[in-house]
Amino acid sequence: MPKTNARPMSLTMRVVLFIAVTVIACLTLVASLINSSIEHHFIEQDSGELKVISQSVAAVLAQQHSSSTALGQALSKAVAGHHGVYYQVNSQQGTLIYQSSDRDFTKQIMSAPSALGFNRDNIVLWQANDHTYRALVSDFNVQQQQYKITAAIDMSFHKHFLRQFKQSLWVIMFGSAVLILLVAWFAVHQGLNPLRGLSKKIYDIQTHKMDVRLDESKVPIELVNMVHSFNAMLDRLQDEFMRLSNFSTDIAHELRTPLTNIITQTQVGLTKKRDLVQYQELLFSNLEELERLTKMVSDMLWLAKTQNGLIKAQQQVLQSDEEIDALLEYFDAVAEDANITFIKQGSNVEFYCEQLHFRQLLSNLLSNAIRYTPAGESITIKSERIGSDQVCISVINPGEKIAAEHLPYLFDRFYRADKSRQRQGNGAGLGLAIVKALVTANGGEIVVTSNENTRFNVFFKHIKS
Amino acid sequence: MRLLIVEDEIKTGDYLKQGLTEAGFQVCLARNGLDGHHLAMTELFDVIILDIMLPDVSGWRILESVREAKNDTPVLFLSARDSVDDRVKGLELGADDYLIKPFAFSEVLARVRTLIRRGGVQKVADILTIADLEMDIPKRKIQRAGKRILLSNKEFSLLELLLRREGEVLSRSLIASQVWDMNFESDTNVIDVAIRRLRGKVDDDYSIKLIHTVRGMGYKLEVENAQN
């Protein structure tokens, strides 16, 4: 199945559709309820009327009548005040005895179900002479005479009324559905207004005005979360942006120093003829500055690459003892010169890191520690297991405490806790940034704390052997 | 020893040619890929130094053609882009070594010499000597003017390296890599301190100095002869 990346349905559309389906369903239900209850009411009304008429006719039949004419007259008066109502009396054999109008139902009467008494269940619908009737045929015995009493109501009026009613009902339904949808659409549109407002505010944020924050108290409760997240994102971006700006400034400064040296020395060297030794001296000095530049540029490129995730660590299982010993041996002479001793603590642990990377990062941490440790003191290197799946390698050195406000930035490129500190030819302040990048590339973490001792803790994954 | 350099960058080509010529090689310089390709295919060289980013025929193409022609002259390629892919590609195509720009000239020289050495079978000497210094590797004995010199393990390895590469300028990173197995560029002065200590034991008490600093490049071991 290929993934379709069509845009999801618009919010307005979703809400309106949802409301539409619900409203139309409800309205249809209400309409059919009204409709059926009216029909039911008509049926009730009709059947009651038919029964009353039949009973009135029966009552007339039950009386004594001198003649059939008298009976006819009596029957014609039997029912009063009913419109569109027809009744007739037939003998059991179908002979017409009386009919209230010229509409003759004899044919239908003979085939209709009938029973003694006025049974509702016998009410039937007839089609006769282009009209529809609701009718009741009842058998009635009086003085050994059997009659069929028929009452019929013309339903044209009812049907007409119902048709009219249905029509207006549908018009009302449709009208209210459209109205509700329009209102819903408008409500959603209005409801999204704060979003549009936010959008406009967000659009106005520029890199030189990154301290703009959206006001959480000015938005509806549903958007607070989003605004909060957005502000947090802005905080992170601003922080990163500031670092980047500072970084660019720092690069310029860092490059400017050696370049100035090279240019000045060369210009001075060329102002007059000099002897060979002086020219050599000049070239050597230039070479040293250029080496510094090269080192800085390649370090910066390397850092840029790690930040773009281009450095892939070839991780292997390392033995902490082996690696730490190799590095202590490497720094042995330097430490001795500085009158600093190394103390190795903890036990051998196995962990997962590229050897070259580990050596480079520990080398940076150690040379850093040597730089800031007072003569006569000692640096502690500790290796230990943390829980079941981590190891921690620590480099701990006494010396001046690093103020808490500097700690979060310590691993930033070119960051120096002491701005006035002279760069004593020991790199351009990229050492710790490189350490952090190396640790990250190997899936580890690094934490620094500083009190009476400064302590760098590097955590790596421990591989169960 | 004939070298072919294929390099389109004028200054880089000129200085490589000058430096290598002064180091005693016969150098042929091609300034574009087409000439380089032609020379590599028609003449014999001991080492070919190949720039990858050439305007016409890329270094990769030249390398491919050379290897397809069953010519296994050692090839050292130069790349301005320090990407792992480039290195892997170069080595897969049959290059022997690579250098990333900017590189130190001493590094180029060391690599070229290594490649040439790799060509012939080297008999590793057991006893190394220079001036009045004698180093017996199997016995781990060092004498200068008949006097025994005691060195630590690493100092011993460092001196052995200097002796075996007598006359070559060894960069700090090469020394760190060969002696301490630290294969990264470092800001520390570890090597300088180590050399200073070694000098204290090997050179200080003698008039003839053997270990020399080459400013901005590294260290070399040789008997000082001419004005240097």
Automatic annotation (TrEMBL), chain A:
Q: What is its EC number?
A: 2.7.13.3
Q: Which UniProt keywords apply?
A: ATP-binding, Cell inner membrane, Cell membrane, Kinase, Membrane, Nucleotide-binding, Phosphoprotein, Transferase, Transmembrane, Transmembrane helix, Two-component regulatory system
Q: What is this protein called?
A: Sensor protein
Q: Cross-referenced InterPro entries, in alphabetical order? A: CusS-like_sensor, CztS_silS_copS, HAMP_dom, HATPase_C_sf, HATPase_dom, His_kinase_dom, HisK_dim/P_dom, HisK_dim/P_sf
What region holds the HAMP domain?
A: 189-242
Q: Which PANTHER family match?
A: SENSOR HISTIDINE KINASE CUSS, SENSOR HISTIDINE KINASE YKOH
Pfam families listed in its UniProt record: CusS, HAMP, HATPase_c, HisKA
GO terms, molecular function: ATP binding; phosphorelay sensor kinase activity
From the UniProt record, list the coiled-coil ranges. none
Occurrences of domain Histidine kinase (ranges): 250-464
To which species is this protein native? Pseudoalteromonas translucida KMM 520
- Main site of residence? membrane
Q: What GO cellular-component annotations does this UniProt entry give?
A: plasma membrane
Keyword Membrane on this protein? yes
Q: Which SMART domains match?
A: HATPase_c (SM00387), HisKA (SM00388)
Cite the CDD domains for this sequence: HisKA
Top-level taxon of the source organism = Bacteria
Q: What does this protein do?
A: Member of a two-component regulatory system.
Q: Which reaction does it catalyse?
A: ATP + protein L-histidine = ADP + protein N-phospho-L-histidine
Enzyme category, top tier: transferase
> Has the keyword Nucleotide-binding been applied to this entry?
yes
Q: Where is the protein found, in the record's own terms? A: Cell inner membrane
Annotated membrane-spanning segments are 169-188
How does the entry describe its membrane topology?
A: Multi-pass membrane protein
UniProtKB/TrEMBL annotation, chain B:
Query: What CDD domains does the record point to?
Result: REC_OmpR_CusR-like, trans_reg_C
Which GO MF terms are attached to this record? phosphorelay response regulator activity; transcription cis-regulatory region binding
InterPro entries per the record?
A: CheY-like_superfamily (IPR011006), CusR-like (IPR006291), OmpR/PhoB-type_DNA-bd (IPR001867), Sig_transdc_resp-reg_C-effctor (IPR016032), Sig_transdc_resp-reg_receiver (IPR001789), WalR-like (IPR039420), WH-like_DNA-bd_sf (IPR036388)
**Keywords, A to Z?**
DNA-binding, Phosphoprotein, Transcription, Transcription regulation, Two-component regulatory system
> Where do the Response regulatory domain residues begin and end?
2-116
Q: Which stretches hold the DNA-binding feature?
A: 125-223
User: Its Gene Ontology biological processes?
Assistant: regulation of DNA-templated transcription
Pfam families named among the record's database cross-references: Response_reg, Trans_reg_C
Where does the chain cross the membrane? Answer: none
OmpR/PhoB-type domain ranges (all copies):
125-223
Q: Could you name the Gene Ontology cellular component terms for this entry?
A: cytosol; protein-DNA complex
| Post-translational modification 4-aspartylphosphate, affected residues | D51
Q: What is this protein called?
A: Two-component system, OmpR family, copper resistance phosphate regulon response regulator CusR
